[in-house]
Amino acid sequence: MPHPELTLEKRIEAELCGLDATLCLYADDLHGRVIERGADRVFESASTIKVFVLGCLFAKAAAGTAELDAVLTYEAKHFVDGSGMLRALGTGAQLRALDAATLMIVCSDNIATNMLIDYLGLAAINEFIAAVGCPNTRLHRMLASDNWGAPLGSITPRDYGHFFARLAKGELVSPAASEAMRGIFRQQHYNQMFIGSLPPYYTDAEESGADPELIYTATKSGSMDACRNDGGLVHTPYGDYVLAMMCTDFKNKLEVNDHPAFLYGARVSRLLFDQYLALEGRFERRFDGAEG
């Protein structure tokens, strides 16, 4: 048995002892071991809410009430500052709903997000959120440049982890839809809080020559003045595990790669990564002699 002061939870606390902020998390090894730290605290979602917009698109496509190939047009009402590429194209640009959804996740495109919220409907997105078992998560509005201080969405680490657990198990809409969404999340660009301390050999397989299917992440982050959030799944030869981290109460509001939330979050992520690999697919060693 582990020393009572060296459990996984205690070591996470040790990693975070110098953080002048509040970091909450939810992690699941998908074998019955869950790690929680303030997992039910409600946070500003920032762009993490976009995963539910993606899920709603696939759910409505499966139900025949939306189409992945539907052509969406960028209109003036969709404009918003912030991340993304569509601002460079100008109004009138057209792209498929699936392409807009890909931009929404991969480069967190805010205009693409508004186009999809307009297409799917705010109520439908919140109905999807409830249907997948995330009771403390809600999208409040479209994104707008003139009210960044107003809540965009509400979320908890537990709800975010639950979403990715369903994705990992192939239970989000359908196995095929889950696999398609996983492929989009794998391309996500803003993941420093999640992968910043993971071995670059695995996270940059294109350059290192590593097998890209050996170990990879599928994630979505979100940042506003009130929060720095990140979460997703890590795929390994032993299976997948899920991690959601959300940080608030920090002083530095700047969008910088060495933000304390990113640095400390990355250290916690690495701790869980090493634990999962060392125990060959678990966060905790079994002492009952059972296998599997």
UniProtKB/TrEMBL annotation:
Residues 26-246 form the Beta-lactamase class A catalytic domain. GO terms for molecular function: beta-lactamase activity. One of its GO terms (biological process) is response to antibiotic. Keywords: Hydrolase. Coiled coil: none annotated. The keyword Iron does not apply. It comes from the Bacteria. Signal peptide: none annotated. The keyword Ribosomal protein does not apply. This is Class A beta-lactamase-related serine hydrolase. It comes from Candidatus Gemmiger avicola.
